[in-house]
Amino acid sequence: MQRRQLSMARAGRSAKLVAMVSPKPPPLYRRLADRVESMIADGSLRAGERIPSVRQFSRQHDVSVPTALQAYMLLETRRLIEARPKSGFYVRPRPAAATLDEPAPARHAPSVSTLSRYTPMVSLMRDLANPALVPMGGAVPGHDLLPARRLARIGASLLRRQPAACNAYDPAPGSLALRRELSRRSLDWGCGLSADDFVVTTGASEALQLALRAVASPGDTVLIESPAFYGLLNIIAQLRLKVVAVPAGPAGLDLDATALALGRGRVAAMVVTPNFSNPLGALMPAENRRALLSLAARHGVPVIEDDVYGDLPHEGDRPRCLKGMDTNADVILCGSFSKTLCPGLRIGYVAAGRHHAAVLAQKTAFTVGSPTLPSLVVAEFLRDGGYERHLRKLRHTYRRQVARMRDTVADVFPADTKVSNPAGGFLLWLELARGVDSLALCAEARAAGISIAPGPMFSPDGRFKNCLRLSCGFPWEDRMAGALATIARLAAR
């Protein structure tokens, strides 16, 4: 009897855990509208085509006429369909967003600078947990897109089956089960790494920090992309390193400017994101990658590769990692599952090649090990094939959300606005008119209930004042179209 009661109590706790992380499903009319939107996005319904009448639609989906009408009204609000007098409903022609110009690479000359005056946007990180704000600031995936229910079940099962393992320290290099799964996945990255090549970290941020600590000391200079991920800039500032920011564009780093910077003085490391960089979404061509590795080898500079978005191409195969082209074991690969699986688990990794021992020493000294239960949860999710199925759906969703955001920008922003056109990830980089101050724009937008990321936070010296980054990580909602219109109006003012 006691055993049965204990089992029922555990089941109850598991059910509560699932309920806590399971989002409330959207109303029926919204699900129907989302289904039609998906058909428009993938080309099943094309611009100018007539769609069923409200009554036909209600019969096809076995819903009431008012529910069908609500779905159509929502699609009209989203500017996806239009009613034509005495004719019915048609798929609305979309703006030619693909013809929008992309921001040109910055043209500043690379020079060494400190980050003593760099101010991290702490308020932006706090905004991530504020449900009152329209979430376009943080590079965070929407909760509804993540397999929270499945992860909760795995966690509850592990706690029942391995309570001792989950309560123990997991010293560096971290969970062998997870490192074996990372080894298996590295074949998709073009690397073929072993489990012993990995160190498990607390997200990609710790991976980058460990990599920098392994190869650079306070006062050393690190070469970075411009614009660069603000989290990287914050890490570099805290480590008291100097930077040389090299202009980047849709193809990644400007290689001529990189060669110039490397020839001017000692550089301790290069930090690059070849696969869908943050904030540009740049994808570095294979020939550029080979040229970059050749430059690094010639100057004896280790390369730190941030591959946190590598699993998120919008179409086609996953792009190869720079690490897979490395013949000198001098590329330090950093990644995580925060953008694809669950930010809250904080599971990342680093494969440091010949710098492995130095990274391991840093990890042991500063954090001892990694969280045990999250490592085991991710390992099991990877092992049962759930991750690949999840990725296929997530890639399609991000592609649709980025396209939708880009289309709306084309609708509501001035014609001279320039917008990135990434082939992966879920970020857009906007270049507005020269007179726009995106820091002031960010403050005004926040006062209006909208979170965005201003351009200067992606620069060590306050560049990109008229630029901003938009996150497309959350599923599209009607309030997002209104938020973009508000940002455009504030920018024009």
The biggest beta sheet reads: 9 strands, mixed
- Can you tell me the CATH topology of the largest domain? Aspartate Aminotransferase, domain 2
Hey, roughly how much beta strand do the residues contain? 5-15%
Q: Output the CATH homologous superfamily of the largest domain.
A: Type I PLP-dependent aspartate aminotransferase-like (Major domain)
Write down the CATH class of the largest domain: Alpha Beta
Query: Structural class, from helix and strand content?
Result: alpha/beta
User: What count of structural domains?
Assistant: 3
- What is the overall silhouette? globular
The helix content, as a percent range, equals 40-55%
**Low confidence ranges:** 1-11, 13-22
Cα distance spanning the termini: 71 Å
The average pLDDT value, as a whole number, equals 89
Cα gyration radius (Å): 24 Å
- The count of DSSP E runs of length 2 or more, i.e. the number of strands, is 18
Number of helical segments with 4 or more residues: 17
If classified by CATH, what would the architecture of the largest domain be? Answer: 3-Layer(aba) Sandwich
Could you give a quick summary of the protein structure above?
This protein is of the alpha/beta class and about 500 residues long. The chain has 17 helices and 18 strands. Helix content is about 45%, strand content about 15%.
Describe the structure.
The structure is a single chain. The longest helix is centred in the last third of the chain and has 27 residues. It contains 17 helices and 18 strands. The N terminus is likely disordered. The strands form four sheets. Strands 4, 6, 7, 8, 9, 10, 11, 12 and 13 form a nine-stranded mixed beta sheet that branches. Strands 14-15-18-17 form a four-stranded antiparallel beta sheet. By secondary structure, it is of the alpha/beta class.
